[in-house]
Amino acid sequence: MPELKPISRESVPLCLDKADRYRLLNDPAQAESICLDVLAVEPDNQRALVVLLLALTDQFAAGSADLVAEAEAVAARLHGEYERLYYAGIVWERRAVARLAHGGLGSAAAAHAWIEKAMRLFEQAERVRPADNDDALLRWNSCVRLLQRHHLKADEADRHPGPVGDD
After folding, report:
1. 37 and 76 within one domain
2. Residue where a domain terminates, one of 22, 39, 59
3. What is the pLDDT of residue 40?
4. How far apart are CA 144 and CA 137, in angstroms?
5. What whole-number distance in Å separates Cα of residue 31 and Cα of residue 122?
6. pLDDT for res 62
7. Rounded CA gap, 128 and 14, in Å?
8. Which stretches in the chain have pLDDT values below 70?
C-alpha cells in the first residue's frame, strides 16, 4: 500500500480553504481527506476539526453509522465548551435529517429522538455562548421547524415512511 505524503505546515490555510470549497461543491469525502492531511501535521488545528466534522456530517445520508461516532469524537476534540456542545448538536441534528431522508420504519421516531438530543445540546451551548453569537439559537429554531414540518411528536407511531419532502 502506498504511503500518504505529508503536506507542509505553510500550506495549511490554503488547504483548509480548499476543504471548505470541496464541501460547497458537494464533495465532502475530498474535504474530509484534506482535513485529515492538515491534522496529520497540526493535530490540534481547530478549523480543520470543524471542517472535518461538517464534512463527516455531510456524508451521513450515504454513509455508515461509523461516521456518526467519528463526528462525535471530532466534536470532543474541540477546545471550547461552547464549540463542543454546539458541534455535537450539529452531529445529532444532521443525523436526524439523514434518517428522515432515508425513510423507512422507525425513521420518524429515531429522528424525533435525535432532534431532541440536538436541541438539548443547543440549549446547553446557548448558556455558554460568546456574546453576540446566536448560532445555537438559530440551530434550535431550525430543529423546531424540522419537528413542525415533519409533524414529529414524542410517543407517536412512525408517521414518516418516505423520503424528506413526501409529507
Report:
1. no
2. 59
3. 98
4. 11
5. 25
6. 85
7. 31
8. 155-167
